[in-house]
From TrEMBL:
GO CC terms of this entry: cytosol
Name by which UniProt lists this protein: Phosphoribosylformylglycinamidine cyclo-ligase
An individual GO BP term: adenine biosynthetic process
Coiled coil: none
Catalysed reaction equations from the record: 2-formamido-N(1)-(5-O-phospho-beta-D-ribosyl)acetamidine + ATP = 5-amino-1-(5-phospho-beta-D-ribosyl)imidazole + ADP + phosphate + H(+)
Listed GO MF terms: ATP binding; phosphoribosylamine-glycine ligase activity; phosphoribosylformylglycinamidine cyclo-ligase activity
UniProt xrefs under InterPro entries: PurM-like_C_dom (IPR010918), PurM-like_C_sf (IPR036676), PurM-like_N (IPR016188), PurM-like_N_sf (IPR036921), PurM_cligase (IPR004733)
Enzyme Commission (EC) number: 6.3.3.1
All copies of domain PurM-like C-terminal, residue ranges: 183-345
C-alpha cells in the first residue's frame, strides 16, 4: 500500500528540476534590443506573442506570388562556439543556411523564426546567440519575427545548446529560377566562400582536433590566426547579392554549395539534357581546406563531396552577362569568377557536373 503524500513532503519545483523560468524571462529581456533591429515594415507587433505576425498585403502586388520555405540548423559547428565560449556569430551560420537556400530560386526572404534548445538557460549566452541571428537577418534583409528558447536539462548538458530555424520568402512565378531556364553555353559563376561555412564539421573536428591533436587556441601560420578563429568564421550570406544578380542579369539558376560539395549541389539545378564542366585551376584552395586534407590524409574526392572548398554559391548566367555579374557581385564584396560552362551532353549522362584540373 502506497504512503500518502502530505503537503510538507511536496517541495519539488520546476527550477529544482532544472528549468528556470526567471532565467528565461531575463533572456527575453536581453534579446529584445537585437530583435528590434531585425524588423521589416510588414512585421506586426513584437516578441512575446504566441505567433509572429507578418502583413502579407504586399503580396497583392504580385501577379502570381510563390512562397518558398526552408528549414535548417547549424550542425556540429555549435561545438566550436561552446568550446570557445563565443556565441555571437553562430547566428550567421543559421541564417546563411536558411536564406541562401531560398534565393537560389529567386525568392526574397521575408521573415525567419529560430529555435534554441539548451540544457540550461544562461540569459547572456542566449542573448548573444540571438544577437548574431538578428544581425544576420539585417544582412539578409529579412525580419526575425519570432522564436523559441527551450530548456532541456537531462537531455543536454548545462552548457550545451543547438540552434535551428525556418524562413519564408516570395518570388514572382514568372521570375522563378531553376533547371528549366538553364541553357547550353551558360557561364558557371563561382562565388567565394568565407571559409568552411556550416557543413562538414564532423569531419573537420575529427581530423583536426581528434586525429591531429590540435587545439582551438593554437595559432596556425598558414591560417594567419588561431584554429578556433578560423573554424568559427561566420557563413557568408549571399542573399542580397544574389537577388540583385537575379534582377540585374540574365541569370537562369543558382546553387547554394552546402553539404555534398560543389558538384553534387550544382547537379540539383541542372536539367537532365545538359551538363557542366568546372575548372579547378580557376581558383586556389583556401588554406583551411588544405589543412584538413593534409592533416587527415583526406582524398580530394572525399574533401570535395563534404566541404565547399572555397565556393559557397554558384550562378548559371547567360555568357554575355558574365562580366556584368562578376562586377555586380564585387559591389557586394563577393569575389566571383567564371569556373566553367554548361554544355550539351550525350544521352544518359545528363545533369552531370565534372571537375577537372588542379587548384592553383
Amino acid at each position: 500500500m502506497s504512503t500518502p503524500v502530505t503537503p510538507t513532503q511536496v517541495g519539488t519545483t520546476y527550477e529544482s528540476a532544472g528549468v528556470s523560468i526567471e532565467a528565461g524571462d531575463r533572456a527575453v529581456e536581453l534579446m529584445k534590443v537585437w530583435i528590434e533591429q531585425a524588423r521589416r515594415p510588414e512585421m506586426i507587433g513584437g516578441i512575446g506573442g504566441f505567433a509572429g505576425l507578418f502583413d502579407a498585403s504586399a503580396l497583392k502586388a504580385f501577379e502570381r506570388p510563390l512562397l518558398a520555405s526552408s528549414a535548417d540548423g547549424v550542425g556540429t559547428k555549435v561545438a566550436i562556439a561552446q568550446a570557445l565560449d563565443k556565441h555571437d556569430t553562430i547566428g550567421f551560420d543559421l541564417v546563411g543556411m536558411l536564406v541562401d537556400d531560398l534565393v537560389v530560386c529567386g525568392a526574397e526572404p521575408l521573415f525567419l523564426t529560430d529555435y534554441i534548445a539548451t540544457g540550461r538557460v544562461v540569459p547572456e549566452r542566449i542573448a548573444a546567440i540571438v544577437k548574431g541571428i538578428a544581425e544576420a537577418c539585417v544582412a539578409a534583409g529579412c525580419a526575425l519575427i519570432g522564436g523559441e528558447t527551450a530548456e532541456h536539462p537531462g537531455l543536454l548538458g548545462p552548457d550545451e545548446y543547438d540552434v535551428a530555424g525556418s524562413t519564408t520568402g516570395v518570388v514572382e512565378a514568372g521570375q522563378l529560377l531553376g533547371p528549366g531556364r538553364v541553357r547550353p553555353g551558360d557561364a558557371v559563376i563561382a562565388m567565394a566562400s568565407s571559409g568552411l561555412h556550416s557543413n562538414g564539421y564532423s569531419l573537420v573536428r575529427h581530423v583536426l582536433l581528434e586525429q591531429g591533436g590540435r587545439r582551438l587556441e593554437e595559432h596556425v601560420d598558414d591560417l594567419g590566426r588561431t584554429l578556433g578563429e578560423e573554424l568559427l568564421e561566420p557563413t557568408r550570406i549571399y542573399a542580397k547579392a544574389c537577388l540583385d544578380l537575379a534582377r540585374e542579369t540574365e541569370t537562369h539558376a543558382m546553387s547554394h554549395i552546402t553539404g555534398g560539395g560543389l558538384a553534387a549541389n550544382l547537379e540539383r539545378v541542372m536539367p537532365v539534357e545538359l551538363g557542366a564542366t568546372l575548372d579547378r585551376t580557376t581558383w586556389s584552395l583556401p588554406p583551411v581546406f588544405d589543412l584538413v586534407a593534409r592533416t587527415g590524409g583526406v582524398a580530394r574526392e572525399d574533401l570535395e563531396r563534404t566541404l565547399n572548398c572555397g565556393v559557397g554559391m554558384v550562378s548559371l548566367t547567360a555568357p554575355e552577362d558574365a562580366d556584368r555579374a562578376i562586377s555586380l557581385l564585387a559591389g557586394h564584396q563577393v569575389d566571383a569568377w567564371v569556373v566553367g560552362t554548361v554544355d550539351e551532353v550525350s544521352a544518359g549522362s545528363g545533369g552531370r557536373v565534372t571537375l577537372r584540373g588542379d587548384h592553383r
